[in-house]
Design a protein that fits this description.
Length: about 220
């Protein structure tokens, strides 16, 4: 899942980003509304976590502009104000969900995941391929009854490939959806992550390379 955190309180923005990255999400950060709008032109985010009280271009205006575009992005609005009238107003201008500050990080993560599912084509809550089972909510992958020791990025790559249901996924697409803007687009990080992931998943192989195209989950053997 690719997420943009828009928050002018730098410590809070960076703290939220760290939590979401530990959950396997690819996270970019913007500290004002103008920067947020610039980033949304370049990246098709699954979820934008949007502070309502931003300097310059306010959160309400950012939300309105996002809603004018034919995009799948979902907006979770954050604000210190928590009255019913203010929540209703935020939802009326186009926000998909609303979370008052202060908030608990587990609730924030759960709400982002729920919005992320709505931004994507429907997939099962638990992804299964033969003896391989991945539970995105619990961040656990199991093969033949044994839990796999995957780090958050390896889990995210495996989740993305399983959700693609056999579609070929290019390295560029993985970089865009699983990594964030700090990643060098010419890096070999996708190849290195894929090699580690294959090693940890074990035999028989689950992921195959499609020459000059990318990667996909192998068809199950009948």
């Amino acid at each position: 899942m690719r997420v943009l955190v828009v928050e002018d309180l730098v410590r809070l923005a960076n703290s939220v980003a760290r939590v979401l990255r530990r959950e396997g999400m690819a996270v970019d950060v913007a500290f004002d509304g103008a920067a947020a709008l610039d980033r949304t032109v370049e990246v098709d985010y699954d979820v934008v976590v949007l502070d309502r009280d931003l300097p310059g271009v306010p959160g309400d205006e950012v939300c309105r502009r996002l809603m004018r575009e034919p995009r799948r992005t979902r907006v979770l609005m954050l604000t210190a104000a928590s009255t019913v009238a203010e929540r209703v107003q935020g939802l009326t201008i186009g926000a998909d969900d609303y979370l008052p500050k202060p908030f608990a990080y587990p609730e924030l993560v759960a709400r982002i995941r729920a919005l992320g599912r709505r931004s994507q084509p429907a997939v099962p809550p638990v992804l299964v391929h033969g003896d391989l089972v991945l539970d995105p909510a619990q961040r656990v992958a199991v093969r033949a009854g044994t839990r796999l020791a995957l780090n958050p990025k390896e889990l995210a790559v495996l989740e993305y490939l399983l959700a693609a249901q056999g579609r070929v996924v290019s390295a560029e697409e993985l970089l865009e959806r699983v990594w964030d803007e700090a990643t060098d687009p010419f890096t070999t990080t996708v190849k290195a992550t894929m090699n580690r992931l294959r090693s940890k998943i074990g035999e028989p192989p689950v992921i195959e390379t499609v020459p000059r195209a990318g990667y996909r989950i192998r068809a199950e053997l009948s």
